[in-house]
Amino acid sequence: IYALGITFYKLITHKYPVNERNYEAQRKKMTQLKCIDRPSKINNDQLWDLLQNLLEFDPNKRITAAEALQHPYFTSPEAIADVSKEQQDIASLAVTAEQDGDSTITEFDKDPTYI
C-alpha cells in the first residue's frame, strides 16, 4: 500500500514524497519526519487524506487496500459523478455475463467505479 501511495504521489506531483540518495538515508529521513508535508499541487482535501493514509509510515496505522477502495476520494458523490458511460456499459456487460453463467466475473467487474 505504501508503494501505491508513492506511485500515486509521484503521478500527481512529479516528485517523490521522501527523496533521498539511498535507502538508508530515506529510512533516516522517515524516522525524523512525523508525516509528509502537503505539496501545493494537491488542493483536493479528499485526495490529500487518501495519500496521507497510503503514506502512513507506521504499517500498523496504514490504510488497507480494502479501506483505500472505500475512501471518499473514490466513493463520494463527486467521484461517482465522474464515472463515464463507457464504464457503466462495461459493468452492465459483466452483470449480463455473470447472469449467463460466466463464473469468472467478480464484484469489481460489475462495479463501474472499479473500471
Structural class: mainly alpha
Please provide the ordered H/E string of secondary-structure elements. Answer: HHHHHHHH
Overall residue-averaged pLDDT value: 92
Low-confidence stretches: none
| CATH classification class of the largest domain | Mainly Alpha
Molecular shape: elongated
Number of domains: 2
Looking at the overall shape, the CATH architecture of the largest domain is Orthogonal Bundle
The end-to-end distance, rounded to whole angstroms, is 19 Å
Extended strand count: 0
CATH fold title of the largest domain:
Transferase(Phosphotransferase), domain 1
Which range best describes the helical content: under 10%, 10-25%, 25-40%, 40-55%, 55-70% or over 70%? 55-70%
Largest pleated sheet: none
Strand content: under 5%
Over all CA atoms, what is the radius of gyration? 18 Å
CATH homologous superfamily designation of the largest domain? Transferase(Phosphotransferase) domain 1
